[in-house]
Amino acid sequence: MIVGLAPAAHGGNRTGRVFTGDRSGDFLFSALHSAGLASQADSTRRDDGLRLTDVYVTAVNRCAPPANRPTTQERDNCLAYLAAEIQALDRLRVCLCLGAYAWAGCLRALATLGEQARPMPRFAHGSEARVAGYVLLGSFHPSQQNTFTGRLTESMLSDVLTRAVALASTIV
User: Fold this and answer.
1) 105, CA 20 to 30 Å: which among 1, 2, 40, 73?
2) Long-range contacts, stretch 147-154, CB < 8 angstroms, 24+ apart
């Protein structure tokens, strides 16, 4: 499972699929394609033929927040949806959290399912935390703010995806 913050106003919110039709998605789907997890390197609309293999993409929040800053109330209102997705994915082993907000959201969702992480693991790019039968992996979000400045490079995201695939295949 790959978890982002929320659908972008001019991307996923417009197209109906998270990370579709925006630059963050361009960066992410290119990396997924290179890792053999996506049928194509880009996604422009919901019916563009993109097929993911053993990957589910979602977000903590369900709608684009004003100024890309979700309120605590918005986060809390959407938390049950993320928890339900985690519960529904019976083969889920790894949650790749794109950014600190997604990391915290996954930890909150798992806590609502009775899976507490103690001590509370800290987010960092490449960080790993085991929570019951899951591993959370941290990655900087593929936003333009991070990719244009080099805070997140293609090789950094590739390395995290490679680790996610390796973990998913070994966790029982």
Assistant:
1) 40
2) 147/23, 147/27, 152/27, 152/125, 154/27, 154/30, 154/31, 154/34
The DSSP bridge pattern shows strands 94-98 and 134-139 to be parallel
Distance in angstroms (rounded) separating the CA atoms of residues 131 and 62: 24
* pTM exceeds 0.70, yes or no: yes
Task: Please name which of 151, 154, 122, 150 lies closest in space to residue 138, comparing C-alpha atoms.
Answer: 122
Phi, psi of 101 (to 5 degrees): -65, -45
Q: Hey, where are the domains in the chain? A: 2-170
Q: Which of 14-18, 77-81, 91-95 bottoms out in mean pLDDT, i.e. has the lowest?
A: 14-18
pLDDT per residue as tens digits for the range 34-85: 999 999 998 888 888 889 999 999 999 887 777 767 888 888 888 999 999 9
**Per 3-state DSSP, what percentage of the chain is helix, strand, and coil (rounded to 5)?**
40, 15, 45
Q: Which CATH class is domain 2-170?
A: alpha beta
Tell me how far apart the alpha carbons of residues 10 and 91 are, in angstroms, rounded to a whole number: 32
The end-to-end CA distance of the chain, in Å, is: 16
Give the 3-state secondary structure of residue 64. coil
